[in-house]
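User: Okay, second chain of the day. Same drill as before: sequence in, structure tokens out.
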Amino acid sequence: DDKTCGVENARTYFGPMSVKYESKLSQGQIEVTLDPPGRNPPKKVTVRFRHPEGKKMTRCTIDGQPYKSFDPEKEWVVLAECPKNRTRIIACYD
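Assistant: Same drill. Structure tokens below.
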């Protein structure tokens, strides 16, 4: 709980991008802040979430809005399009 990790300004084929994971396990959440690449954006983005106790996510929000395109078994959230701006994704574990 209350730990962070991530990568800043990673050089990718799609352009520089950053991702930061924040553990908020006491609240039943893991939060990701994604600064997407802008030079050559990918068609879709998959973000992987792994709960340290192996719990499966039960719901997800993107920028505060409920989001249904996630797979609790594979532990990922799939963004059908690459966002243009900083995006906050929250995986919830009830």
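The two ends are 15 Å apart (CA to CA).

User: Thanks, on to the next one.
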